[in-house]
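[step 3/7] fold_predict: job queued, chain A
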Amino acid sequence: MLPNLESAYTHCEEITRNSAKNFFYAFQLLPKEKRRAIYVIYSFCRICDDIADGELPKESKLEQLEQISEIFQKSSLQKPAIHNEVFLAVEDVISKYKIPKKYFIEFVDGMIMDQKINSFENFSELELYCYRVASVVGLMCLEIFGYHGNKNEVFGYAKKLGIAMQLTNIIRDIKDDIKRDRIYIPRSEMSEFGYEEKQLRELRYSENFYALIVFQIQRIRSFFDASSELNQHINEDSQSCINILRTLYLKILDKIEESNYNLYGPEISLNKTEKITTMLRVWVSHIAINCTKKFKLTIIK
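[step 4/7] structure written:
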């Protein structure tokens, strides 16, 4: 690997280590080359997300995001002067793992969508947003993990997992999003449960609020359930990564329920010990399952 490319990968690892929270722990059980490639994908997403959530005027944010989108619309990747190292690594990962550029464009579309829309009328609109900002990242990662089986089915499971994870973020971060003038719970559903946008903005609890959030969490769990077969289609050396992410996000939902849906209070999150413990348990379980499979195959032979 060329020195400047090696430096680019190292830079992406540093970005991921400093910013990735739950994701960083899941990435640790990937083989080295796949892990480094995932760091690159994360770093690209982090750059776009930082632009979208930054302090620049909306017009400047849109201009920067559209410039990034244009980079992937050309036959060869034109690396920008800023974040050059990340885009150098992105170019290498796209080439090495044959990742369609359309995924990067769709992700940026999601970031642009976030600048133009600060609330959603119905779940169909929200689902499209979740697909763009989360599911397409999963599809990028699939190409790195490696998979087998019916492509449409595998991609369907990955899309549902991405939506489940993004919806979890939305419920967990509801208070912070309101401060940023963003409401991700569909207006039609708030109306259905008799909870007004004014009450949401005032961070007011009520029986209607609890009923609305219970409904949201039940739907999130249904998306996790619908994605449960993804792991059996992922290459064995990458399965633990998916398992850890799924487990960590389900633990966040558990914590929300254990808090009695105290979403307007202190931040609900997992501490470092919980994350490491989860990582070790999933890793040990994965090793035990695979050892059992190999033992059975040996007996059969």
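[step 5/7] annotate
The first helix runs from residue 3 to 19.
Residues 83 and 92 are 15 Å apart (CA to CA).
exit 0
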